[in-house]
Specification:
The structure is a single chain. It is built from 34 helices and 27 strands. By secondary structure, it is α+β, with helices and mostly antiparallel strands. The strands form five sheets. Strands 1, 2, 3, 4, 5, 6, 7 and 10 form an eight-stranded mixed beta sheet that branches. The chain has a six-stranded mixed beta sheet with strand order 16-17-21-18-20-19, with helices on both faces. The protein has a six-stranded mixed beta sheet with strand order 24-25-23-26-22-27, with helices on both faces. Bound molecules: zinc ion. The site of zinc ion has 4 residues, from helix 1 and helix 5.
Length: 973
């Protein structure tokens, strides 16, 4: 981008951000003084955020109430809840707002340019021109208000934030966090509660609330952030013209002040509420807290994350171990909060007793002194550094957009020094620095300076008190009663009227024209292009491989896949056991604990799984491939270690260690049972599909109900079966892990291929020889509609069938059907009317369809609802606006942004399933072009699925007995 094309801004700094492959620009908007940060790169998941520095001067929670209130309508978008409309009619990948102890931020994210612009527009309008000045009701609804329904009624407080904080103030962890912060910084804004203390929230007046907005929600006090692949110049000019140019720079005093260090550590004890039947013993939280420099110290910021890992968080870390061995608390946790100006390092013992306080402090200080004297465990430090560096480079934040997390991290320095936004995000040099310190005295000196010699600290004890909540509620009732008694009749009437007025404001529907003002996407705005498939067939040595050329920031994701085709049907459950055992059993060179540490010191982790790939070009033959996979992720330079550890697991595991196998089976059994109870819907749907689908049957045999039955059977007769089992596992390992049976899937940049062929060959050479036979998995299916009885009061009711087997075919419109059923028909009938917690459906390319309910009080009634889908679809009638919304909702599901690892997995899945780009493009077009009649036509698909009449229910004994005639058999697990 060219900043000279944005005349309204001054460029203060430009920086290449190597660690996150971006270019950073720090700007200032000349007229308004707004601080602007651009992070330009090719990430399509764009992020916009506007934040304000909002130090609270009391504990009324005004920053938090403001955060809620500005999203309740604004000048250009006056509907009362634009937020909810945006959630439904947009492709956003993030939409929220957050209040912190010193800042309030409003981030949005989307991969769609127009959607992104819409979200940005609504958010800018919300923060700068909220309707709070026109409608006091917003303050009363979100903050607090008196509630008096009639003159005779009890007077009470109401308000969204008021109620939210009452909840937050009752959790002991919440109490502890807050008190630590308040205690360590008594002379700064951190002494106050930005979220609001329910005791003080009612002290806030409407006028003070508006003043807070006037003071802090000014561009001069703002932090605007744009991230990703977009036309930055256009965005900057739009921001200038539409909003920023209307403001003149103002002098906003929102500085976060430094707390002067204490001369001596302080102590604080504070109660939290427990119910009268809960024990007071072993229910206290002991915490030891120290202030660690400021967040403007780049090395400290990272070094203490590593110390947290090495001293406290890793399994077997010295502080954790010493406190546990001394019997102080049942759980030891550490935290290092570096999202405030003066970061805090905390050591917390949960489930302790107050009289252990002295022993707690002594143990910590003794351990730390010994470490300073004898030196830190180098391996632990190296593991800690690698752990954090790996996560920094991988930047895999699961469902959260990368740009969002980067933006929040940049605030850790930017908020306290407006010239320093890049300090922590550009961390490669800092990691190098820290690596060089291992073996020296650097970390020991940090412990001496910041933990042992540092008097700016506090020991905070949070202690249980029985019936505290009830007592406080009583006191509040008395206070309100006294207030009510002091009022004249007219004043009481006025309160009743105000209560009614607020309710009227809330229940009045928005004007249609106001709703229309909220921008929603149209189908025509959505790209018809699909996410590219990146598969490149190659040989690594003699081994066939598929390479996925994806920008992974220097990390290789390797999957070694072994074909299971030759394994006879009756052996498959043992393959499931083999998969469960490998990686957590001793090997020839390591105990399993050491194995785990060694892996984490050099790589990002190693795991195993069983995968299934259905061939969509041979649907009628139901062809599929099953594989045993071992996967590793590591920096390219560490790939040799990843391969050698994979080899260790595959070839040197002690599968004759029957004592350990027994432990693993017991754990497996209890986990499977737990899974059936907590997510019985997927279990029941899989089981019902297995009546007619060989691949579903295989999955059930290795991870579902049949697998459980096998594991339970072996575990119960372990002594008689252990030798045979151990032999079986060794035979299978020899049969499966063979070079001629092997294939590689690899996701990385091209440079990450270097050396991989050699590593693959070396691994293959260590595997036993065998001869590849061209056999397919042969699996026999049989329909037997089953009911599984549990002790629960709710059911998981599954109905499945293959609609292709029964004469229908797949179309992209089925993806919309999922959304329609879940927003409308199934939602209405199974959740709203039936009282189930949830319900879902799926229809895939190989013809497998299911509908299943989740925590459902019904059984037969739910089956009837499924039958009703056909009629519902035959008569399906929809407005254009709703059809548009269903399509946007479907696209939003299909276009969920993916991490590099997920992109590689997707490409490999498509490769193995033989799905072509044309197929995906066709499906997408079928979604985008769908009309009412296309949805009506799906009645035939659902009818075909239902005609298979496959059912499986997991649920309560009574319901099952009542409906016995529906099943071929009713059993327990
Ligand atoms: Zn809130």
């Amino acid at each position: 981008m060219k900043t000279e094309n944005c005349k309204a801004y001054e460029l203060l700094r430009k920086e290449e951000l190597k660690g996150i492959k971006s270019t950073g620009y720090l700007l200032k908007h000349k007229k308004s003084g707004a601080r602007v940060l651009l992070v330009e790169n090719d990430d399509n998941n764009k992020v916009f955020s506007i934040g304000f520095r909002t130090p609270p001067s009391d504990s009324t929670g005004v920053p938090h109430i403001m955060e809620h209130s500005v999203l309740c309508g604004s000048r250009n978008f006056p509907a009362k809840d634009p937020f909810v409309e945006l959630v439904k009619g947009s492709l956003n990948t993030f939409l929220n707002a957050m209040t912190y102890p010193d800042k309030t931020v409003y981030p949005v994210a989307s991969c769609n340019e127009k959607d992104f612009q819409n979200l940005m527009h609504v958010y800018m309008d919300a923060v700068l021109y909220p309707n709070i000045y026109q409608h006091e009701e917003i303050f009363r609804q979100e903050g607090w208000s008196y509630k008096l329904d009639s003159k005779e009624d009890k007077l009470s407080y109401n308000g969204v934030v008021y109620n939210e904080m009452k909840g937050a103030f009752s959790s002991p962890e919440g109490v502890l966090d807050r008190v630590v912060l308040n205690t360590l910084f008594p002379d700064t804004s951190y002494a106050n509660e930005s979220g609001g203390d329910p005791e003080f929230i009612p002290d806030l007046t409407y006028e003070q609330f508006l003043d807070f907005h006037r003071t802090y929600y000014h561009p001069s006090n703002s932090y605007i952030y744009l991230y990703g692949d977009m036309d930055m110049e256009e965005k900057l000019n739009w921001l200038d013209q539409e909003y920023l140019s209307r403001y003149d720079a103002a002098d906003v005093d929102s500085e976060i002040r430094l707390q002067k260090p204490f001369e001596e550590m302080v102590e604080k004890e504070i109660p939290y509420s427990i119910a009268s039947e809960e024990p007071e013993e072993e229910n206290t939280y002991l915490s030891y807290n120290k202030v660690i420099g400021t967040s403007l110290d780049k090395e400290l910021y990272l070094a203490f994350q590593i110390l947290d890992y090495a001293l406290l968080s890793a399994p077997g870390a010295p502080l954790k171990k010493a406190l546990t061995d001394a019997g102080i608390g049942k759980d030891i946790i550490g935290s290092y909060d570096n999202g405030i100006y003066q970061p805090v390092f905390s050591i917390i013992a949960k489930n302790a007793d107050p009289e252990q306080k002295t022993a707690f402090v002594d143990t910590i200080e003794t351990v730390l002194k010994n470490i300073v004297k004898n030196g830190m465990d180098k391996k632990a430090l190296e593991a800690g550094i690698n752990y954090h560096e790996f996560r920094y480079r991988e930047a895999d934040f699961g469902g959260y957009p990368k740009g969002l997390m980067y933006g929040l991290q940049m605030m850790d320095s930017w908020l306290y020094d407006e010239n320093e936004p890049f300090m922590h995000i550009e961390a490669l040099d800092t990691f190098e620095f820290l690596k060089n310190q291992v073996g020296g005295r650097y970390f020991e000196e940090l412990i001496q300076t910041y933990l042992l010699n540092n008097t700016h600290g506090a020991v905070v004890v949070v202690k249980p008190e029985k019936g505290r909540t009830a007592r406080m509620d009583r006191e509040l009732d008395q206070k309100l009663q006294a207030y009510k008694d002091s009022l004249s009749e007219e004043e009481k009437e006025a309160l009743v009227k105000r209560t009614k007025d607020l309710e009227e404001y809330q229940s009045a529907p928005d004007k249609e024209e106001d709703i229309q003002k909220i921008p929603v996407l149209k189908v025509s705005d959505i790209s018809r292009e699909i996410e590219p498939i990146r598969n490149e067939e190659m040989k690594l040595g003699n081994i066939p491989a598929v390479f996925h050329d994806i920008d992974t920031n220097g990390i290789g994701y390797v999957e070694v896949m072994f074909d299971l085709s030759g394994i006879p049907e009756e052996k498959l459950p043992y393959v499931g056991i083999l998969q469960s055992v490998l990686g957590i059993i001793d090997t020839e060179n390591y105990e399993y604990g050491e194995l785990f540490n060694e892996i984490n010191m050099h790589t990002g982790g190693i795991g195993t799984s069983l995968e299934l790939y259905n061939d969509v070009t041979h649907i009628r033959e139901k062809e599929f491939k099953a594989t045993f996979e071992i996967k590793a992720k590591a920096l390219y330079s560490q790939m040799p270690v990843a391969f050698s550890m994979m080899r260790e697991i595959l070839t040197a595991s002690k599968l004759n260690d029957t004592a350990r196998i027994r432990e693993i089976l017991a754990m497996l059994k209890s986990r499977l049972l737990m899974k059936f109870q907590s997510s019985g819907h997927t279990t029941a749907a899989l089981r019902a599909l297995s009546y007619a689908s060989p691949s579903a049957k295989l999955k059930d045999m290795t991870n579902g109900i049949e697998f459980y039955q096998t594991v339970a059977e072996i575990e119960e007769h372990f002594e008689e079966k252990k030798e045979a089992l151990s032999q079986e596992l060794q035979n299978l390992a020899g049969q499966i892990f063979r070079a001629d049976n092997m294939m590689i899937s690899y996701t990385a940049e091209r440079e990450g291929l270097e050396g991989l062929a050699k590593l693959t060959e070396e691994l293959a050479a260590k595997l036993p020889e065998g001869e590849k036979e061209e056999t397919a998995c042969v699996i026999h299916c049989q329909k037997r509609n089953e009911g599984f009885k549990t002790a629960s009061k709710v059911q998981y009711v599954a109905r499945t069938g293959n609609f292709i087997d029964h004469g229908a075919s797949y179309t992209g419109a089925l993806q919309i059907l999922k959304v329609i059923l879940s927003y409308d028909y199934l939602w209405q009938n199974i959740r709203v009317k039936g009282g189930a917690y949830g319900c879902m459906s799926n229809f895939n390319r190989i013809g497998e369809g299911y509908m299943v309910s989740y925590r459902d009080p019904n059984l037969r009634r739910t089956m009837d609802v499924y039958e009703g889908v056909v009629e519902y679809l035959e008569n399906f009638t929809v407005s254009d606006r709703d059809m548009n919304k269903y399509i946007i909702g479907t696209i939003s599901n299909l276009d969920q942004p993916m991490t590099p690892a997920a992109k590689g997995d997707r490409s490999m899945n498509l490769y193995m399933n033989h799905v072509s780009e044309e197929m995906i493009r066709k499906e997408r077009a079928e979604v985008l072009d769908a009309k009412q009649e296309d949805i009506r036509a799906l009645a035939a698909v659902v009818k075909a699925m239902l005609s298979a009449e496959q059912i499986c229910v997991i649920g309560g004994e009574d319901k099952m007995e009542e409906n016995k005639e529906m099943f071929d058999c009713v059993t327990k697990f």
